[in-house]
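FAQ

Q: What does a record look like?
A: Structure on top, sequence underneath. For example:
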């Protein structure tokens, strides 16, 4: 459709004027500036708030902001208290959520309250106590002129003065307190990364007099049960598959037992800690803690299936190949009055991978 087909009243003003001038010989009418729909309407007249004209109202707002910051501080303290008070396995009934973890619910509630009251206090402060007068600034080049920089600094100083940050010490101090305490919640959460190891990684369930129990038959092992070239896995007496801590304890106490001809044992201490050529070493690889289960009877080498670390059981279980950092710990064994194999103590060094406090 051409402009000739459009009704004249629907054409833009300038085009319609030009069309009229061309078609009827009338003079074009210039568009007046006050008819421009994109003209800057300017800012509405500023209306003062009650806090701007009534100092008592300003004080009430100041106390309200301070109360919110104080509640944030109390919520942060409550977060830390809940972390200490509630055990991790405690469940409570809370409508409408049902049975939930008391620890998780209380931590979420208190931390959420601490963050909420900081935000609410800041918003209330800005809306009731800081200056709300709008200022229009003309656009300027990216590189500011010296006088503009000076004006910015002056505006900053004026804004700081108008915010009352220096005069309203109650708001300022309680805000500092809330902001200083909230990060403590994150510090406390670091404690929940796991229990401190203390010296648990240095010891196992093995102790003097504990019998070696066959992990397949759950019967005490006797010297005659172990033949040359065989590999047997054992665990300490008193530990059962149904125990709540079984996985944690067997990860340190798992034992592999082989019988080597005494003449083939190269390491003097290994021979002294054995019984008639029966040697007991930790089953846990010293690289990343994988269970070792591959034994080559001709060479007396054991291989970790995870990263191929290889240990020589005839030479103190030293590392002969792979990424493992040190030899497998040996358990000193003997025979009790009943003829069963027993431990003569715990491992002399921590089992498994190296760790930072191993020493």
């Amino acid at each position: 459709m051409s402009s000739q087909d459009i009704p004249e009243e629907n054409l833009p003003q300038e085009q319609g004027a030009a069309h009229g001038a061309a078609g009827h010989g009338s003079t074009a009418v210039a568009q007046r500036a006050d008819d421009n729909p994109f003209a800057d309407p300017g800012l509405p007249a500023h209306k003062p708030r009650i806090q701007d004209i009534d100092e008592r109202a300003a004080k009430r707002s100041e106390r309200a902001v301070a109360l919110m910051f104080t509640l944030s501080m109390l919520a942060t303290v409550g977060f830390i208290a809940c972390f200490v008070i509630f055990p991790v396995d405690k469940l409570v009934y809370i409508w409408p959520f049902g049975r939930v973890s008391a620890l998780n619910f209380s931590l979420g509630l208190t931390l959420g309250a601490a963050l909420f009251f900081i935000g609410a206090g800041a918003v209330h402060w800005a809306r009731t106590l800081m200056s709300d007068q709008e200022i229009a600034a003309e656009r300027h080049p990216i590189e500011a002129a010296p006088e503009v920089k000076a004006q910015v600094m002056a505006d900053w100083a004026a804004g700081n003065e108008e915010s009352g940050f220096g005069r309203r010490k109650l708001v300022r101090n309680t805000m500092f307190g809330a902001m200083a305490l909230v990060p403590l919640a994150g510090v406390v959460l670091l404690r929940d990364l796991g229990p401190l190891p203390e010296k648990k990684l240095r010891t196992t369930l093995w102790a003097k007099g504990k019998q070696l129990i066959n992990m397949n038959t759950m019967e005490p092992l006797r010297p005659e049960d172990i033949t040359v070239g065989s590999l047997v896995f054992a665990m300490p007496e008193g530990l059962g598959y149904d125990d709540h801590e079984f996985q944690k304890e067997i990860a340190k106490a798992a034992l592999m037992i082989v019988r080597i001809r005494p003449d083939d044992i190269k390491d003097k201490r290994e021979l002294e800690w054995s019984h008639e050529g029966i040697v007991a070493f930790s089953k846990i690889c010293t690289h990343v803690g994988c269970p070792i289960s591959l034994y080559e009877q001709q060479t007396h080498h054991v291989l970790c299936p995870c990263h191929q670390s290889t240990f020589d059981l005839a030479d103190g279980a030293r590392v002969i190949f792979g990424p493992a950092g040190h030899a497998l710990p040996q358990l000193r064994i003997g025979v009790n009055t009943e003829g069963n194999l027993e431990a003569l103590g715990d491992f002399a060094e921590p089992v498994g991978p190296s760790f930072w406090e191993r020493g």
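Q: Is there anything notable about this one?
A: Residues 54-193 form one domain.
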